[in-house]
Write a structure and sequence with these properties.
This protein is mostly helical. It has one domain: Heme Oxygenase, Chain A, CATH 1.20.910. About 80% of the residues lie in helices and about 0% in strands. The protein contains ten helices and no strands. The longest helix is centred in the first third of the chain and has 28 residues. The structure holds ligand VIB. The ligand Cc1ncc(C[n+]2csc(CCO)c2C)c(N)n1 binds next to α4, α5, α7 and α10.
Length: about 220
């Protein structure tokens, strides 16, 4: 079994919790309150900018030109996605930009920046992988079920694209290659990083759903 297949098996309860989460359910049905979607998009714009920084960190630290190129392209793409949010959804759904990261976004981004800066590139790659992989799976899941009249259709179509599918496959191959060259202890850290980020993906949806804010 591929290393990444093993990773996916290990997060099976987390992935199920994401698919059955109220945010995903209501987004699919089109009944998600616009204020909830607004919170999500505002936080995601903040997330994407720093996610790009985390990928650039991996690009700077990768040892082969091929890997550097992959991480650089992913990093560039995250900024393009962020820009697309501004050019489409912010206008389409009349959303105001936000500057404060709420708890899940704050935790997730700081975890990714610390891991891609201070851990090995292999562990850093495992930490950013859920962002790609979970979005492809959740994106396809929603895409298959949502109606054409869904008010969030424009967002839903983004993650079901072929271009996105290709970058996820590239990221998976890259992670498997790092795992092959890693020691058992290193692979254990990769598994842990993959699980932590997957959990934080759930928290990201949950913060939007509950409109979570700093209590103090
Ligand atoms: C919280 C959160 N997690 C994952 C994504 C998905 N995503 C954003 S950028 C990118 C690819 C960059 O090359 C992917 C897969 C998101 N938007 N927000």
């Amino acid at each position: 079994m591929k290393f990444t297949e093993q990773l996916w098996q290990e997060i099976s309860p987390i992935y199920s919790a994401i698919l059955t989460h109220g945010f995903v359910n209501e987004l699919t049905l089109g009944s998600l309150p616009s204020s909830t979607f607004q919170y999500y998009i505002q936080q995601d714009a903040l997330y994407l900018t720093d996610f790009s920084r985390a990928l650039n960190q991996l690009a700077a630290r990768a040892t082969t030109p091929n890997d550097m190129l992959s991480f650089t392209q992913f990093a560039q793409n995250a900024i393009l996605v962020e820009r697309a949010l501004h050019e489409s959804y912010f206008t389409l759904y009349d959303i105001q930009p936000e500057t404060a990261k709420m708890p899940a976004c704050f935790a997730y981004i700081n975890y990714l920046l610390a891991t891609t800066s201070l851990q090995s590139v292999a562990v850093g790659a495992a930490a950013v992988l859920p962002c790609f992989w979970i979005y492809r799976e959740v994106g396809n899941y929603i895409h298959q079920r949502a109606s054409q009249q869904n008010p969030y259709r424009s967002w839903i179509d983004t993650y079901a694209s072929e271009a996105f599918d290709q970058s996820v496959s590239q990221m998976l191959a890259l992670t498997d290659q790092y795992a092959e060259n890693a020691s058992a202890a290193e692979r254990e850290k990769m598994r842990d990083a993959f699980r932590v980020s997957s959990r934080l993906e759930w928290y990201f949806w949950n913060d939007a759903y509950t409109q979570n804010r700093w209590l103090v």
